[in-house]
Design brief:
- Helices cover 70% and strands 8% of the residues.
- Helix 1 packs across helix 11.
- A four-stranded antiparallel sheet has the order 2-3-1-4.
- The longest helix is centred in the middle third of the chain and has 59 residues.
- It has three domains: 74 residues, no CATH class; 117 residues; 101 residues, no CATH class.
- A hairpin with a 5-residue loop joins strand 2 and strand 3.
- It is α+β, with helices and mostly antiparallel strands.
């Protein structure tokens, strides 16, 4: 009989049950040994238990800068390398994860450890969940808390930087506008002091009546002549002066708002669930390891004895 036919016969259900009964003590011994070994090797002596701390946050005071939602924008910043390396430096994770700093691929290695132990994700409700796992539950909790604080500081600095750019731009515009206002003001002062031009409508009416009534003829004719000669230039300068003042006020309003934004201190996250040190380990889950190892040992044992019986039959 060909070998593959013999093996096929031994792999049908009836044959398998008979094999299990025949080799039951060997299987039981093998399974027990594997279970004990998995229990030993999954113990704290071989695998250091890890504890996980989490926080749930929502973005606050954030203005989207693209088509991304506020939560997506928050997620991008939380996953940025600026925050990653801030956490790495703050908790000396090079030493903590036993990565030699400054060596080839040391940054790549430390970021691998970071991503393996720190997880940041967005929920369907647009909340952000920040989780950190560590052998020290207090460190795990502190890392999550620090990520939130570093996020607030980073966004604050980014916004303040942009606001300072606006402050500098409008400060220069205000200075230029002040020079223009001063220049136009001097011209208007000349019209008022040298030519007695104050208010065209009121003065023309006043001095026209004075001439009609025969009073102050010389002064009235002089003022009216000045209006005829310099009136259009006066109105042009006065109009430019008015709009220069208006532009200055608008620029100053933007400048004041930007200066306030550059100096304000605020947070950019709503912490819905705060992190705390876990009192129960999250890794490894020993019963899962033992269960899977036991089941794997059982099925591996069945396959091994099937091959043994098949080989005997073939011979």
């Amino acid at each position: 009989m060909p070998k593959y036919e013999v093996m096929e016969n031994y792999f049908n259900t009836k044959k398998i049950f008979s094999l299990i009964i025949k080799w039951k003590w060997h299987l039981i011994s093998f399974v027990i040994i594997v279970a004990v070994c998995s229990a030993i090797f999954s113990s704290p002596w071989f695998i250091k238990p890890k504890y996980t701390s989490s926080a749930v946050v929502y973005p606050a005071n954030v203005i989207p800068v693209s088509d991304e939602s506020e939560s997506e924008q928050m997620l991008e910043i939380l996953k940025s390398e600026d925050i990653k390396f801030a956490i790495i430096e703050a908790f000396d994770l090079y030493k903590h994860y036993e990565v030699e700093k400054g060596q080839p691929k040391s940054n790549w290695k430390i970021l691998k450890y970071y991503d393996a132990n720190i997880n940041i994700r967005k929920t369907p409700n647009d909340a952000i969940v920040i989780s950190a796992s560590d052998i020290d539950p207090q460190i795990a909790s502190n890392i999550v808390d620090s990520i939130i604080k570093f996020y607030d500081v980073l966004v604050l600095n980014l916004n303040a930087s942009k606001s300072r750019e606006i402050v500098n731009i409008y400060k220069n515009q205000m200075q230029l506008k002040l020079k223009e206002i001063d220049s136009l003001g001097l011209i208007l002062k000349t019209f008022r002091t040298d030519y007695n031009l104050l208010d065209m409508e009121a003065q023309v009416k006043k001095y026209t009546e004075a001439i009609t009534n025969g009073r102050s003829l010389e002064e009235s004719r002089k003022v009216l002549d000045n209006w005829r000669e310099y009136g259009s230039e006066f109105h042009k300068t006065d109009s430019l002066f008015y709009y220069a003042l208006k532009d200055y006020r608008l620029n100053k309003e933007v400048y004041d708002n930007a200066l306030r934004d550059a100096n304000k201190v605020q947070t950019y996250s709503h912490v819905i669930s705060k992190p705390f040190p876990a009192d129960k380990k999250s890794y490894p889950i020993r019963w899962v390891i033992i269960l899977l190892s036991t089941l794997g040992a059982f099925f591996a044992g069945v396959i091994i004895i099937s091959f043994i019986e098949a080989s005997k039959k073939t011979k």
